[in-house]
Amino acid sequence: MLTFILWLLLWVICWPLALLALVLWPIVWLISLPFRLIGITFDAIFAFLKALLFLPSRILGHKA
């Protein structure tokens, strides 16, 4: 809701810029998708490595 109110304020102050933002936002979102997927992948890889490195201590009964 706050984003919409800010966009309306931008519309009142400078409507060409608001229209440009409205048109470009989906394009920016599409461009950022691969970077989000890369981030999710790296997050999963690091979680796997952490689980793999802490596996011996978990087998020996250490509570972490």
Task: Kindly describe this structure.
- The chain is elongated.
- The protein starts with a helix and ends in a 5-residue tail after the last helix.
- The protein contains 2 helices and no strands.
- It has helices at about 1-15, 15-60.
- The longest helix is centred in the middle third of the chain and has 45 residues, at about 15-60.
- About 90% of the residues lie in helices and about 0% in strands.
- The chain is mainly alpha-helical and about 60 residues long.
Give a brief outline of the structure.
This protein is an all-alpha fold and 64 residues long.
Keyphrases for this structure?
64 residues; mainly alpha; elongated
User: Given the helix and strand composition, which structural class is it?
Assistant: mainly alpha
Overall pLDDT metric: 91
Form type: elongated
Low-confidence stretches: none
Largest sheet: none
How many DSSP H or I helices?
Answer: 2
How far is it from the N-terminal to the C-terminal residue, by CA?
A: 40 Å
Assembly type of the shown chains?
Answer: single chain
Alpha-carbon Rg, integer: 22 Å
Order of helices and strands: HH
Strand percent estimate: under 5%
Number of strands: 0
Q: What helical percentage do the residues reach?
A: over 70%
Strand and helix map with partners:
Blueprint: H1 2-13, H2 15-59
Helix pairs in contact: 1-2
